[in-house]
Design a protein that fits this description.
The chain is of the alpha/beta class. 36% of the residues lie in helices and 24% in strands. It is built from 12 helices and 15 strands. A 9-stranded mixed beta sheet has the order 14-13-12-11-7-10-9-8-15, with helices on one face. Helix 6 links the parallel strand 5 and strand 6. The longest helix is centred in the C-terminal third of the chain and has 20 residues. The chain starts with 5 loop residues before the first helix and ends with a strand. 46% of the residues are buried.
């Protein structure tokens, strides 16, 4: 992730009519695909979306128009694209969570690199199948964990890598929303999403916290994942109303995760909970030499017998996390570098989230 402008600098020197070095198929034309399209446009013409796929006609045509694709480059299913003869090097999977594994495996089996939206998938056994397909294809598989690529995250990671915090023995990860419950069925039906705020927003803050900690190996989880407010008719959502008869996922979750070596982490996430803030995203790291807070980027320690608090400062970069992650994926494909977000790390994320749900059902701590 160092040198984040090299590819963007390079594309300004290329003939705009030149063929792209990286040809991408967008699979899934729902809401999140919009920010992916913007990210790919920044890399044009070095990398370019050359086809889109979605079973829903309106969504497929809307995104196709936004990208500027010819009608013959818009498909209802990935298999139709793969049979079409259109040259593709990579797939950007923005489909529903339940489709992540089958889309990714099919693409890898056809020799394509894959950038897959978070969560990589919903079950550890499916992640392992994706890893097996990646190993067989020898292509890059990257999870689109964009919060790693935000400027504040990049700066704190650089600071932590220098060892300033010492041994990080405990962390707290929070992604809490007061009344922001998504209204679309793809978020609230567990058969499609795999879960509620754990899968939707918890996966973001969990991945970033593990990334900052150096990705310790999880061993157990003790958690709750109840649905407390989502069925109530007197609760109003700030994004509109949802179908209370069809919501089958939690609206809040909290868990305590233990790691090999003795470190631990507390995770809290919600769509609906009674807190002061409309939304609270926060990571607290506690180390033997100092602690840190994100996104505040404050460091807290002691020196010469006195407590010391420091605010990290860095040069402003207006490029957002989604664009940075897409560039990192394109860089890896074009240069042969390893995946910037390895599937093995995403496997640990899904092991923890799956353990969280199992712990809630069992009412006790479970191993992962």
């Amino acid at each position: 992730m160092a040198g984040t402008t090299d590819l963007w600098d390079d594309i300004t020197k290329i003939d705009p009519n030149a063929k792209p070095k990286l040809r991408v198929a967008l699979v899934g034309c729902g809401g999140i695909s919009g920010v992916h399209i913007d990210g790919w446009k920044r890399l044009n013409p070095t990398a370019r979306i050359v086809a889109c796929v979605d079973p829903i006609e309106d969504r497929r045509q809307q995104r196709g128009d936004a990208i500027g694709l010819p009608k013959e480059a818009r498909f209802a299913h990935l298999r139709n694209l793969l049979k079409s003869g259109i040259g593709v090097d990579a797939v950007d999977c923005c489909a529903n969570n339940s489709a992540h594994a089958p889309v990714t495996i099919e693409a890898l089996n056809h020799g394509l690199h894959v950038l897959c939206e978070k969560p990589l998938t919903t079950k550890p056994e499916l992640v392992r199948k994706m890893i097996a397909a990646r190993n067989k294809s020898k292509k890059i598989l990257m999870t689109a964990q964009h919060m790693r690529f935000q400027n504040d995250s990049l700066r704190l990671k650089e600071y932590v890598k220098d060892g300033v915090l010492g041994e990080i023995y405990y962390a707290r990860a929070q992604f809490l929303r007061r009344r922001y419950l998504p209204t679309r069925i793809g978020f609230i039906d567990k058969n499609i999403s795999g879960g509620g705020p754990c899968i939707d927003v918890g996966v973001h803050i969990l991945d970033l916290t593990l990334h900052l900690m150096g990705y310790p190996e999880p061993v157990s989880v003790s958690a709750i994942a109840p649905q407390k407010l989502a069925k109530r008719t007197d609760i109003r959502g700030w994004w509109g109303e949802w179908d209370r008869a069809k919501i089958t996922v939690e609206d809040f979750a909290a868990g305590f995760i233990r790691f090999k070596g003795g470190a631990a982490l507390t995770l809290e996430c919600s769509w609906l909970t009674n807190i002061k803030e409309p939304e609270l995203t926060k990571i607290t790291l506690m180390g033997t030499e100092a602690g840190a807070e994100w996104p505040e980027l404050t460091i807290h320690g002691e020196r010469a017998g006195s407590t010391l608090d420091t605010q990290l400062k860095y040069a402003e970069n207006k490029v957002g996390g989604h664009a940075q992650e897409i560039k990192a994926f394109a860089d890896a494909v074009l240069t042969g570098r390893p995946s910037p977000v390895p599937a093995e790390q995403s496997l640990n994320v899904i092991r923890i989230l799956d353990g969280l749900y199992r712990s809630h059902r069992a009412g006790k701590e479970v191993t992962v």
